[in-house]
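User: Here's a chain of 700 residues. Predict its fold as tokens.
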Amino acid sequence: MKRDLTPLFSPSSVAIFGASGREGRPGYEIVKALKSFPGGPRIYPVTPSYQQIDEVRCYADFNDIPEKIDLGVIASGPARIVEDAASAISIGARALHVIGDLGAEDGDRLWVMAREAGALLLGPNSIGFVDFLGGVASTWAMPPENHRSPGSIALILQSGALFSYANSIDPRLKFSTTVHLGRELDVDVVDMIYRALSVEETRVIGIYLESVGDSKAFGEALSLAASRDVPVVVLAPGRTAEAAEAIATHAGRMAGGKAPLEAIIRRYRLIECISLDQFWCTLHLLSSGIRFDRGGVAIVTDSGAQRAMALDAASRVKLPLARFSKATEAALREVLAPELSPANPVDIWAGEKDVAGHVANCLSTVLSDDDTSVGVVVTEFGVPAADTFSTRIAEGVARLAGGAKPVLAIGFSTRHFVSDRIMGLERAGVPVLDGLETSFAALAHLHHYRASSSYPTPPGLSDSRRLQVESALAKLTPNDEATTLDLIEAAGISTVARATVESLEEAIKAAGAIGYPVVVKTAEAVAHKTEVGGVWLDVTDAGRLEEAYADLATRIGRRVLVASMVKGGVELALGAVIDPVAGPMVMVAAGGVKAELLADRQFALAPVSEDEALDMVQALNISPTLDPYRGKPGIDRHAIASAVASLSRLISEHSPTIAAVDINPIIATPHGVVAVDALVSLKAKPVDLCDDRQQETLLV
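Assistant: Prediction complete.
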């Protein structure tokens, strides 16, 4: 739920415990930061060692402070943190910002103390925050130069280093607030999302995310962002076991693994970046207010090489390019040299003398095309000032700023050494992005965000289905494929015809009823049957059946399952599991023996609608194999999506009982799907998906 963070971010009075007169010490730098905005809060450094710090009167005894304080900043050493926090609370502090770190026991004491006092707690181990809009900064990592102007990016970071960089780098990035959350004993990511959404100026929220404490509350905050059309851009490491271990070791966090994050990203329309450069670039673009609702990007460049590489880069990130009309191409032919193509992207340079006028003319022409949504000029804008060619291109671009359609400038690479030209374009109203690949990825993020929509609310199990599931659960025997498939069928997923037998005679009778060919597999308590030679495929007659039964009965046990043999189609795997942070999740993946080899899988929070399930299937690397090809019919994607949705309802509504479900393979054909093999794990102990290796064991 949204909380009032006013005492923390908009205090009228601040006491700094552990204040210092030594430059470079946190207790000194925070005093300077609090002073740096005109009209900021009243400041009361607490220290017996100094009478003044940076011309601010100090107090040897906190009881001498002449008023109750809103915010207590604890810049003390670890041994004094809890004591000084108690002192701050005693003089009225309704919020605490704790810079240093604490052990688990002292951290618990601090949290209990703040909670009982009704005080907000930022930290411990928080470098702090800068509220550029409100004019308050409690941090020891303020940049030495003058404040950048406030803007529309709300930046929430679970990294102190990135907080320091953000406040010091690229002046093009205009923040409303930047905050480093530290250990998040109290104030957390969710609180900061709500605060960002309460600020009218916020156009985009950026989050460096290592872990989520309460996925339900996180999801509710993200849902509100989506409903208000405020994009959330996420940079989230910890996708590998090694990276997750590094996060846990350094920051004391448990990284959530890739599966829960993928599920959260899909459900709440988050924009995921894979590098810090892409993160900054995407935030810069989205903060500009540029919209990309239809059509494509029109690209103007001055090089054949840049044109070719732009085509490749756009293809890689699925960035739609404007398809010029014949009228637009004819207009371009009037101004381009004969050897240059009028197709998008357009290489416009052939030695024209009036560079600025030529750029403006070509850019105006492509912007006038009905299919153009955004105009882009690509060149090396950051070359030295002596290069007047780039300066003249920039002049031409600036002439189109503020028109009916947005214009962007993109540096061909990120090798920028001179910023004056770039900042000149920014001041003229033309955002400048860095690097072809990074910038096109940012544009693709913007396009896909605008083109996407929220998924419909999925329905629950019907009353009849719920009764069937509960009956099947009551009869379920662990590691028994027959009763497991009964449960899968009760949930609404088609399964193979089958019978469990304990003699050759019963096996022959069952095969006759089912119809040859059949599959014969062990029905003993074996999780991965193929690994122990427990499956005979394509058994076509009674003689072959007798051979299969004799082998399995001798090596593994007399109890076997006889099932219909499904030929053709595509093997998929479906899975469901209870994640300790994200809750019930469902998975669709490449199936059969390829499941672990390809690791081609998509996750979603359960339950899912069929629309979301279709998007999961579309995102698989094997998705093209489901399409029609050379006269062969395509696979029924809607049947796959229906099975995914049914499994998601099962795990969602029976999460207190079911720990995990593995359906592998489920055969998808042009006429539907049929589950061939399944394994259900009932709850015995908490299932931990933080370790991707354990996750793969459960879901594959």
